[in-house]
Amino acid sequence: MEKQHYSSREQKTQGDRFFKHFEAKIKPLLSKIYSDPIVEQLLTQIYALIQEHLADSLAENLNKWSQNEVLMITYGDSVYTAEEKSLVTLARFLEHLQDTITGVHILPFCPYSSDDGFSVIDYLQVDPELGDWQDIEKIAEKFDLMADLVLNHISSQSEWFEQFKQGIKPGCDYFIEADPATDLSAVVRPRSSPLLVEIDTTAGKKYVWATFSADQVDLDYTNPDVLLEIINIILFYIQKGAKYIRLDAVGFLWKQEGTSCIHLPQTHALIKLFREITQMINPDTALITETNVPNRENLSYFGNRDEAHLIYNFSLPPLLVNALLQGKSDHLKTWMMSMPPAPLGCAYFNFTASHDGIGLRPTEGLLLEDEYNAMLETMEQFGGKISMRSKPDGTQSPYEINISLFDALKGTVKGKDEWQIERFLCSQTIMMAVEGVPAFYIHSLLATPNDYEGMAKTGRNRSINRYKWDYEELKQKLNNPNSNQTIVMGEMSRRIQIRRRQPAFHPNATQYTLHPMNKALFAFWRQSIHRDQSIFCISNLSDRSQELLLSDINLICIDPWQDLLSGGVIQDINDSLTLQPYQCAWITNKFDI
């Protein structure tokens, strides 16, 4: 964003105006987190950090996205060659997707010690195995970049944690110590590993808080210096071209003994603070919160349209998989009816697969027990693994399904069948039509199967869906017209490009659940913000042909109608529509876009 030039008097006036705005926005949030003396000091320190980088306008940008936005999720080395750095190879692969996607979420690209990048050693460096900042910036020039900010924890091999062990500032004050005798049974756990980790330090044995693993040590946000470090990292990522900043595991930020230590008021205040600061630096930047929790808890991260710009639609993947395994729409339909429209300036972030597994906590209260168990059993039959977490009472419960989504849909609860590709395409077509911004995992675009070898090599369930494609091997697959990769990527690209041209698929366009009598059909209506385009999205979730009476979806007789996906024209709105197994239709009154 180009800066305007002001005279010295104008600069002072502008500076005073910005500081008053800054103080009015930031001070109340800091006051919810810290004591008054700390608040006054922090105000000065934060303003000093961002002052030179303030945007020219104080106005909120309410047009951060349109129907054109489509992202791909990938590791920096999901595609590689031996001859060059992986980020260079990724940039070459992205050339094939210039007409398909507009943004790229490159999963953690910093140096790390475990968890495939989510145990960051240095936030301000790029892993030299992947490339450097110049490689990141080149990708950001052509695609909207999403960068991960792993802000709940840092690697035990980081400089900060080494300082902690040595008793050296600043790191000696950056982590949470606790007495192992303390009752921490109320703490919500996403893993089965011990919450407290014993560490040898120069001052003797200490126990530090580690929500996710012994190598991922939680940062102490009660120390305002930690907050300043994180704000500095956010500023740095924006300067490097990040349009989206993903706040990883953000629900766990604030710890308080005697509580669940998840979704605490201080955590929500911190997210509001990050939103206000990014708004002041670059109004085009969007924050996305990663909170893999039950639906109502997840929705709380919109706040009063003052927290996350985007939240993951975590309930969609397991509900969609269940619907396609069962061949019926009831739970998917109930969920859709319960979803409020995203607030002004906010949007849902839709996905069906990611580097993690299919989260199961977001199904709580949404699936019947017998269907839930049938889904787990079917996923295991199709080669998947079920990861567990510890509950406060000491028992364990399923946390996520680890499986390639392509293989998760190789059949139904009845077993494997011949409809894998059609069923998979149906899942992706529903996702890209639902209210929100769609994001496709690279292994969904490439129909990547389960990576059993990778899982055996690492000993981790999640590796089953983190295959690394040799680029030469991948090009051979994509040059074979009969390969799953060519068929799926070609059809996905075609449908995505159609989707990107439709105003009714704007992330904030109206969405209304429809109720055809046939449970095998899932149907909803989207209407453009300007009310000039309607799209009726109809999907056959079953392995049999299904009939839909067009009168059931209330087409208006004064408009001509056409299916955007097949090109078929509706001649008589009182007729019926036959949908083949897993076929989708986007019936619209405006098809000359």
UniProtKB/TrEMBL annotation:
Species of origin: Waterburya agarophytonicola KI4
InterPro entries in the cross-refs: GGa_phosphorylase (IPR033746), GH (IPR017853), GH13_cat_dom (IPR006047), Glyco_hydro_b (IPR013780), O16G_dom_2 (IPR045857), Sucrose_GGa_phosphorylase-rel (IPR016377)
Keyword terms, alphabetized: Glycosyltransferase, Transferase
Residues at which substrate binds: D115, H153, R246, L247, D248, H355, D356, R462
A biological process from GO: carbohydrate metabolic process
A molecular function GO annotation: glycosyltransferase activity
Protein name: Alpha-glucosidase C-terminal domain-containing protein
Keyword Magnesium: no
Domain Glycosyl hydrolase family 13 catalytic: 69-416
One Pfam family it belongs to: Alpha-amylase
